[in-house]
Structure formats: C-alpha cells, structure tokens
C-alpha cells in the first residue's frame, strides 16, 4: 500500500466536499485489513423530495447514537479479524531466519511485517513468559494499526500528521486496552491478548517491572473501570477520546485543528451516550428524579475523564523518549530482540 497515493486520492475527494464531514459510507467497505476495513451494515431508506411533504431531518440525538453504534461495530470487527493459519505459520518461519530493521511508517501501514493477526485471547489464564511479552507487543501494535486506519476521522489527516499521532498514541492505546482486558479476565496484573497476564507481584514477573507500571495500571485504571462498570460503547468512545485527546506540538496547524475538532466530537458523543442511560429509579417519576439522573451522569463522565489522565500518566511513567517501551515493562537489554529494536531506530529516522 502506498499511503501517499491513498492520501492523494482522498485530497481529490475532499475538494468536492467538506474534508471534516464524516459520511456514513466512510465506515463501510472495510472488509479487508489490508485496506483497514470493517464492514458496517446500514439500511437507508431513500426518499424522493416532495414539494408538499419533505422528510424531517434526523435529530442531533439520533445522529449521535448512530455514530456511536458505527464506531462500536468498527471496533468489534477490527478486534475479531484473524489471519489464516498458513499466513501465521509462514510469518513465524520468516522471523526465525530474518533480522530486518523496519521504519515506523512501513510498520504502521503494513503491520503484517510485525506480526500475524492471531485471535484475541482475553483470559489471563497463565503468567506471562518473556515470549508472551514480546508476542503481546507485536499483536497489540497490529491491533493499534488496524484500529486507527479503520477510523474515518484518522484517515482524513495528512500522512505526516497520521504518523505523528500514531507515534504518540500507541502507549495510551495499549494501556487502555490492557486495563479493560484485565477487568474482563479478572486477573491481578496486566492482561495480554494471548491468554497470558503480567502479574503485579514482583516475585512472579518474568521481567523486572522496576517502575511498578503493572501495579499502577491495575490500581489507577482497572479498579476504577471495574467500579464504573463501563459498557462497550463507553469503552470504545473513551478510546477514541484518548486518541484525539490533545494537540501534539509536532502536528501541522491543520492537524492540530482536526484533532481538537474530532476530540470534541467524540466527547460530545460520550456525553450523549452517558446522558441517555437511566440511573437508579425510573426517570419518568418527576423532575427531581430527572435532575438526579443528570447529576449522576455528570459525575460518571467526570470519573471517566480522570481515567484519561491516569492513562496519560502511565505513559509518562514508563516511557523514556521512546513512546512504545511501556509495553515491555522496562525490558532489560538482553531481551531486546530485533522486533523491539526496530521501533527504537524508527524514532531516530524518518
């Protein structure tokens, strides 16, 4: 795939319309991971305009709910994609015989160079080995690439801004996914996507977690997530909010504006979803109940925003100028094989 060619085609399309408007079809035609795709089934009734009776425009509430449903469907599809067994076996054989440095841009747009799409096994049934840690890093990076490239709002950015955002968001993506997997599996540590978990108890760790990042994630993210009992829509929308949470200094002016605008949109979608839920007794009993429900929704959203800060703090805790090292839990140099070293080099070269 040539990302600049794709970008050129998108620029031509944007000249005929608003580049920031998300069309419903943007979430369609995504059936192949090579084109970052998931397929969303949407039924649209075509109505011919009438001079006497025009169809009412959809309300903002319905539009917000519809967009939320679409991004959840995208998330499910990306997480469920699995490469054929033969492709996975061929990749393992290739990695045993080759040691190649890969630029970050090539790895991100061609994640199959890093690892195969194995089934996500969110069980945390065994303590992670060094190999489990390395396999998790590769699988999570592939998931990260697939997820971002399946998001229409991300594809609206220039290639340069896409790379800047990707380099600076893998850490927060990884921690948010692992924290929610930990809640799902019920393990005490960092749950991985391969059936293993990295324990927070030092004596059980295959690699010394000298900064205590696994325990910090468990206490500052997994426990609050469990207490809030986040639903699937809240988890996915929070992930989108985290990706577009602030303006990075290295983005272009257009990229900064896009991140700000899209981030605000996802926050509004999250507010709408939370406000649409009922809390406590039925809301139709009176204004007092209505006001109480709105207050509870506001408190819930505030607690979710604290999780955003906790996720960012974890990245700052565990990264030393290399945004992707936090997934390795400060791996000693003797364990740094070429799959890890290439990402270090990518931050030093374009």
From TrEMBL:
PROSITE patterns cross-referenced by the UniProt entry: NR_LBD
Membrane-crossing segments per the record: none
InterPro entries: C.elegans_NHRs, NHR-like_dom_sf, Nucl_hrmn_rcpt_lig-bd, Nuclear_hrmn_rcpt
Chain spans, region Disordered: 1-59
Gene: nhr-62
Keywords: Receptor, Transcription, Transcription regulation
Protein name according to UniProt: NR LBD domain-containing protein
Domain NR LBD: 63-344
Key word Methyltransferase present: no
């Amino acid at each position: 795939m040539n990302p600049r060619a794709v970008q050129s085609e998108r620029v031509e399309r944007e000249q005929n319309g608003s580049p920031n408007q998300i069309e419903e079809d943007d979430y369609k035609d995504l059936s192949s991971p090579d084109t970052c795709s998931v397929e969303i089934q949407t039924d649209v009734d075509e109505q011919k305009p009438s001079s006497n009776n025009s169809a009412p425009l959809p309300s903002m509430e319905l539009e917000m709910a519809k967009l939320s449903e679409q991004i959840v469907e995208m998330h499910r599809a990306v997480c469920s994609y699995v490469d054929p067994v033969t492709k996975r076996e061929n990749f393992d054989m290739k990695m045993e015989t080759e040691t190649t440095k890969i630029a970050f841009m090539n790895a991100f747009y061609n994640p199959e160079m890093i690892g195969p799409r194995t089934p996500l096994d969110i069980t945390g049934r065994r303590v992670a080995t060094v190999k489990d840690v390395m396999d998790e890093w590769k699988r999570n990076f592939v998931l990260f690439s697939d997820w971002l490239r399946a998001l229409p709002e991300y594809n609206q950015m220039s290639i340069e801004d896409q790379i800047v955002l990707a380099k600076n968001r893998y850490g927060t993506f990884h921690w948010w996914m692992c924290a929610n997997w930990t809640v799902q599996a019920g393990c005490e540590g960092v749950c991985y996507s391969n059936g293993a978990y990295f324990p927070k108890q030092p004596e059980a760790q295959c690699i010394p977690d000298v900064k205590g990042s696994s325990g910090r994630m468990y206490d500052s993210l997994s426990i609050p997530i469990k207490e809030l009992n986040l639903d699937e829509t809240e988890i996915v929308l929070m992930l989108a909010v985290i990706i577009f949470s602030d303006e990075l200094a290295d983005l272009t002016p257009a990229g900064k504006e896009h991140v700000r605008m899209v981030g605000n949109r996802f926050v509004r979608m999250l507010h709408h979803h939370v406000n649409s839920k009922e809390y406590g007794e039925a809301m139709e009993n009176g204004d007092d109940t209505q006001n109480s429900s709105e207050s509870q929704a506001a408190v819930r959203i505030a607690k979710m925003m604290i999780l955003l800060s906790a996720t960012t703090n974890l990245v700052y805790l565990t990264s030393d100028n290399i945004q992707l090292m936090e997934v390795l839990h400060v791996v000693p140099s003797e364990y740094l094989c070429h799959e890890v070293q290439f990402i270090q080099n990518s931050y030093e070269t374009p």
